[in-house]
Amino acid sequence: AKALGKGRVDIFEPEMHARVEKTTRIEHDLNTVLTRNELEIYYQPIVNLQSMTIEGFEALLRWKHPELGNIPPDDFIGIAEGSGIIHHIGQWVLYNACEQIVKWNRLYGGESEFFISVNLSARQVSHSNIIPLIRDMLEGAAFNPAKLHLEVTETLLITDQETAKRNMAELKQLGVQLSADDFGKGYSSLTYLQNYSFNSMKIDKEFVQDMETGGKGKRLVSSLVRLARDFDLSVIAEGVENEQQLRHLQTFSCHYGQGFYLCPPLPSEDIDVILIKGGH
Ligand code: C2E
Ligand code: CA
Ligand code: CA
Ligand code: CA
């Protein structure tokens, strides 16, 4: 396409046009997503690979758009971060996910309570409001802070380092657990482990899936598990899609697994059914 002047292009690929239009629509509709009650949280069990019992859940956001259908988080989280609406959405997720886990713990928790793992975007972690927000939430919900796990990715390092570092330390003070999400996908992972006091590490599904393709993939995952253990972190492998991957992870003594083969992300009613049957 040839530019005809400032901001003008003569040929606009139809595909690109559709994409831009969809993004504009998402941007616009995000403003009312909470008032229109279109968000839902799905829960994916995190399974102890030794006992094969459910110990916690990751909260995964779903947007059921009345016209565009289901919009995956990867298609709107970035946009929400740009507009600042991520803070409202993030707060909504925290409150609802914590309320849900309190309920499950009351009904099915038994002696060992389930943990809830919530994704935080870099923007949220470097925001000044995050500490009071989580402190208030913990007080209101009256549950063990150690059962709230916050998943953060490495992009934190690149953006607002100082604030993020301070906030992470304060979050730690509140007693919540910090989890290094998508570990190894960035480029400064070891510094990252050194600078922040994580409790756990999540191995991205890409690495787990690469185990099949040959010796190197397997060695990479086993090294990551060993690295986590050396740093006294518990380690969670995501994207476990088959029996073989599960066996490998068990051989490497990976603590936890998460994936379609174990259980897909599900609406809370479906998790209720699993818990009633005593599937943990
Ligand atoms: P993530 O944190 O890396 O989450 C794991 C993704 O893998 C989820 O995608 C999950 O549905 C998917 N998954 C689970 N098991 C399997 C499997 O066996 N195979 C494969 N191929 N995929 C599996 P999802 O739900 O589409 O979420 C995408 C990303 O959106 C998440 O990646 C996370 O970064 C972000 N996200 C989701 N919910 C939230 C939220 O509440 N807040 C923020 N800030 N980000 C969120
Ligand atoms: Ca995650
Ligand atoms: Ca991610
Ligand atoms: Ca991931």
Automatic annotation (TrEMBL):
<protein>
    <submittedName>
        <fullName>EAL domain-containing protein</fullName>
    </submittedName>
</protein>
<feature type="domain" description="EAL">
    <location>
        <begin position="23"/>
        <end position="279"/>
    </location>
</feature>
